[in-house]
Design goal:
This is VOC family protein. Helix content is 24%, strand content 44%. It is built from three helices and eight strands; from the N terminus they run E-H-E-E-E-H-E-H-E-E-E. Strands 2-3-4-1-5-8-7-6 form an eight-stranded mixed β-sheet. Strand 3 (38-43) and strand 4 form a beta hairpin.
Length: 119
């Protein structure tokens, strides 16, 4: 699997206040979107998330988001090392994702930018 980068997940109480801090620290402008009831701002290598505790409690279990060239390759490699695919692969607005539990118990989201039409 080709790992292209990693994003860290940070749950915050006040997304607007946090965005200014992380924009200053990273020098990057936030890109905002919704994931269900959770407001998300991607700033540099950070995903800032704010919303209902019921949804955040699930998202907190995922250590990081790992960008890969192809989610299908990730599935093959993850399965080969004994990881459990918890969810996915599923289409998203920008590609596909999956959630996997590594043999050590760590949970990661893997994402690609491969569009549904290419899959």
């Amino acid at each position: 699997m080709d790992i292209l980068g990693t994003s860290l997940r940070v749950c915050v109480g006040d997304l607007d206040a946090a965005v200014g801090v992380y924009e200053r620290l990273t020098g990057a402008e936030a890109v905002r979107f919704q994931r269900g009831g959770v407001a998300v701002a991607a700033v540099g290598c950070f995903f800032l998330m704010s919303g209902p505790e019921a949804e955040l409690s699930v998202l907190r279990k995922i250590t990081a988001t790992i960008a890969v060239k192809d989610v299908d390759d990730a599935v093959a490699d993850l399965t080969a090392v004994g990881a459990d695919i918890v969810a996915g692969p599923l289409p998203t607005p920008i590609g596909r994702n999956l959630v996997a539990r590594h043999p050590d118990g760590s949970i990661f989201e893997y994402v690609d930018r491969k569009q549904e039409a290419e899959a």
